[in-house]
Amino acid sequence: MRLRQSLPLLVAAALAGPATLLPTPALAASPASATATASAAVAAPAADGRAPAAPTPFGAEIAAPSSSEDLGRTTAPLPPELLGQALQPTGTAVQNAQAGRTVQAAQNAQNAQHPKAAATAQHALTTPAPAAAGCAASDFGGRSGADLVAFVQASTTDCVKTLFNVTGTDAANVFKQSQMLAVANAFRAQAGKYTGDNSGNLLQLVLFLRAGYYVQSNNASTVGPYDATLTAAVQAGLDAFFATAHRTDVSDANGTVLSEVLVLTDSANIQAHYLNVYQQVLNAYGNGYNAFPKMVNAVNSVLWAPLWRANWNPDYVSAVTADPGVVTTLASFAQNHKDLLTTPNAFLAVNAGNDLARTAGDGPAVEAVAKPLIKRVLDSTPISGAVGKLYVYTAYNANRYDNAQCSYYGTCDLPGKLTAAVLPNTLVCDNRTIRTEDLTAAELATVCASLRGEDTFFHNLVKDNGPIPGQYGKTITLAVFANRDDYQTYSWAIYNNSTDNGGQTVMDVTDPDNKPVSVMYKKSYLDGFPANVWNLNHEYTHYLDNIYDMKGNFGTEISVPDIWWIEGVAEYESYAYRGTTDTQAMAEAATHRYKLSTVLQNTYDNSDTVRTYPWGYLAVRYMVEKHPADVQNMLGHFRTGDYQGGYAVYNGLGTSYDADFDTWLNACAAGACYADGPTALFGQSVDGATVTLTDKSVENNSPASLASWHWTFGDGSSSEDRNPVHTYAAAGTYTVNLTVTDSAGKSASTPTSVTVTTGGTTTLPTCTDPRTDALGQNCSRPNQARTAGNLDYFYVYLPAGTSTLKVSTSGGTGTAALYYNADTWASPSAHTAASTNPGTTQSLTVTNPAAGYRYISLYATTDFSGVTVSTQF
What we know:
Number of helices: 34
Helix content: 40-55%
Oligomer: single chain
Strand order of the largest sheet: 3-4-5-7-6
Structural class: alpha+beta
């Protein structure tokens, strides 16, 4: 079956022991996911690059999903305010809409990229966690003064975070100014005693204040105004905090508190008062911080909160104009920390470049300081390669906020410049221009031929009468990046698209200036598409459907439940045209999971990937093959913009076709819906690290016979056996792909995932990270030694999607216990998993660990030496 991950959640990504912890991971999955956080909260800039109002305060930090490779959908280009935003580490998000409230306009615009994503994202951002006992809004709103302060400090931080969601009467009771003043005064009284951690429960007070500003901004008429009295009290607390010696401690305990305090300066909109603090935080950063994820987050809090957002605050702009030292600090940070660009902490350097370019829109005096510094960053940073992201983001924001100087920066035609650098190969194919990063001339010709043939197939399928009159976009560009990383780095800045997906078609047939583009990338494994261009024919079908079948823009198209057609026809054409079998759809047909009447009501809100794609495929195939008159009747309405009329055609069927559809599914799953020629199918059986793969491929309606089998196992190895047995060196989830070829030379491929829970007997290589306490993927650290009672500390970075982490030790002499902790240095007193067998042979497995840095240690129960510690994932 073809791999499909869950539909993307286009939400923002923003991250918040002892000795040396490592930072939580890397850049946000895409500009799209990084964008929502800030853009949803800011007003659109005026002609001078600044809006008159301050942005809405940030909400609570919440978990964010990993990025997806799902199929995209046609959509209008993203507006500038949704592009080029501050990046965040993967795995977390910042809430920007309250429970029960409408997501703000900018977020809505972004979510239009994928309505299912929008619905799920809104749920993730707005649904409060269940309140624990003693953690209801009334528990806070029913208290005041010292009683309220004591209750806040006695609550957990998770409990206080639920207050970001209070609305209505609860919002007024909890966060009216008198309540906020009580907590602000307590914050002021305790901040000067800060000890570098949350032992005094100062963090709960800070979170309460942040929640109050956030809730009041969304419920101003209910909560009431906040005046200068509150601002003064909060500022006094902040001043006291920043005056303490421990606020500069380099530890995760301090970083956790410091990060929220820095964001509070932004929530209270008093950023102008803390320019020196922001500079101190940035100037103090060094690579030693990389051992402390919460301290890295604190540095990033300066970059993605006040220094990015405060440019809309006139007081802040005046302060920077009077003392532009922060501009120089940002430039130095971006230049001096380019080494981060090839690490998980690349977002720090990129955000510094982002903020630097953003300052150029703060008026002539600031621009005069920023201009040469921005140019220096751009001139010294290659456009392509591992460091290209810094160039792209800095250049984009220089253009956006200081466009009059684009000639000086060399960025006047930034999309053209990026295109020339990363998509140099071009082929004009009739009304299509194919631009690619690394397709050869032969591969370009293959793509062109595929698209030409698909035109004819589509017209025969839908029986259209030509393009819908009065719509635009009769020519299209197809942009193909070499890999997903490059797609996410460059595509948004060239084509204004969301990139948290497996490709996207950007067009608005109602806009005469819009130039349609389908943006894609080559898959890392064989996927069966021409020239291995992921989703080529699916995305091109969306373009054709929009030109010939669907009148109006995307919002108009989805005004009725018609996702079964929109996604289903793209899937059906993709497989039927290529003459390949949708093996996932065939497997789903056998389950009888949905009735036809259910699938015909598909929306992005009510459908997951299975209901959207394979069941959309099945519904379209059934309706096209069994009831073509109904399809033509429906499309006749859609082509005139009468979506309600089109919906009435199939909604009026009720359940009348359900029984026949159910019978049809049986035949389909039994082989009636298989493509002519070979279909690659296989079964799997996993035993520890070993997977036994059993070929079940079939040849359908062809005199040819299966002749050869080629397997790739997702770990760099392959096999030509028909039924191979493969042992993995490390636990994890791998993409196994089978390509079968018949005696007539026709091939078919099917990838699927295989998960093994243990590693094999292969000796793992020594980890290559120069830090000797850094572990890695499928590697080891030999010759470890400690005397009795001491700890040997390690850390490992886990990418998003890691299903299993196995840690093991072996060899040497003595007794070494193995400990694991997800959040801080592991030890006998601080661990979430352990292996404490006698001797040095230990093993533990962590399933579904979150992305980020995780911590491992060996404790010397007795002296040990010569021990090897290994990590497999």
